[in-house]
Amino acid sequence: MRKSIKIFSAAIMLTAMMIAACNGPQRHDENKYLSQGKTIATETFNALSSELKAALARGGVPEAISYCNIQAMPITDSLSKLYNADIKRTSLNIRNPMNAPDSLELAILNEYQRKFENGDSLHPQILPVGENKVLFTAPIMVKPLCLNCHGEIGKQIQDTSYAIIRKHYPEDQATGYKAGDLRGMWSIRFNTEDE
């Protein structure tokens, strides 16, 4: 019953967003923000993953966990300043509470999850948010490297590594994934007044 209510609420919110899109950015602006969003997501992913791979090489999963705990948010914040956009990674199953989705992000995540479960293609999208904001979202899919910290406990994640994860993130929900699963999404907000 609760799942039906969540899906119904998500459908209503997404319908309202589509109606609002009529008053949102022009089509050529959509393409511009779609392109910028893809570039920013790619650059942020590359920055985070290259540092993560280096941490894994230095000290394995424990080093990678410590790196993410201390450095992931500052790297994302510095790239937000560089690109003059609010960059966030969020999920239905969060690890860091600071990455929890807001109500709009939750509706979009639920829609991505529904499409994923139905075998539909997942694509980046642009939505107007208020008068002067545009939101870019794109799915984040689980890659094999991700399984070191987001896979199944006792299989890809050693019990000792999971103990370290729980030490840093006591409310962790971000395990049990397989390669190719939907992990979450990029949420990148642009201020259209800055142009």
Range of helix content: 40-55%
Mean pLDDT comes to 86
| Unreliable runs | 15-25
Count of domains: 1
Number of strands: 4
Cα radius of gyration in angstroms: 17 Å
Order of helices and strands: HHEHEEHHE
Quote the distance from N terminus to C terminus: 45 Å
Structural class of the helices, strands and pairings? Answer: alpha+beta
> Spatial order of the strands in the main sheet?
1-4-3-2
Strand content: 15-25%
Q: What is the approximate shape? A: globular
The main β sheet shows up as: 4 strands, antiparallel
So how many helices?
5
Give your account of this protein's structure:
This protein is α+β, with helices and mostly antiparallel strands and 195 residues long. It has one domain. It is 54% helix and 15% strand. The protein is built from five helices and four strands; from the N terminus they run ααβαββααβ. Strands 1-4-3-2 form a four-stranded antiparallel sheet. β2 (125-129) and β3 form a beta hairpin. The radius of gyration is 17 Å and the shape is globular. It starts with a helix and ends with a strand. The model is unreliable at 15-25 (pLDDT under 50).
Task: Briefly say what this structure is.
The chain has 195 residues and is α+β, with helices and mostly antiparallel strands.
